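[Meeting: bench + compute handoff]

Bench side (C.D.) handed over the final construct sequence. Compute side (W.E.) agreed to return the predicted structure before the next meeting so the bench team could plan truncations. Sequence as handed over:
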Amino acid sequence: PTGVPEENVAAYYRRRAEHDVGLILSEGTAIDRPGARNDPGVPLFHGDQALTGWKQVIDGVHAAGGKMGPQIWHVGSVANMFNDWAPETGIEGPSG
């Protein structure tokens, strides 16, 4: 709920890396833009706390011999459909 990956997330990805996978991509991670996520449970990929949490995840994957990259995410025009937990923002898209 905080958007910061904790030890359980690090353990989840580490277990996957232990089985000789080629590359692990994370779940969707929200960038630092208004309306980038449409659910408070979506992990963040910005800010000191979140990036420290992701470093813990990556360190565990690397220790198990794996490689990992983030799935960068922005929900675009669906950001405010069911959002009753964050201030309303304008719709962001490639055309402005």
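W.E. noted at the follow-up: Residues 68 and 82 are 31 Å apart (CA to CA). C.D. will use this when planning the next construct.
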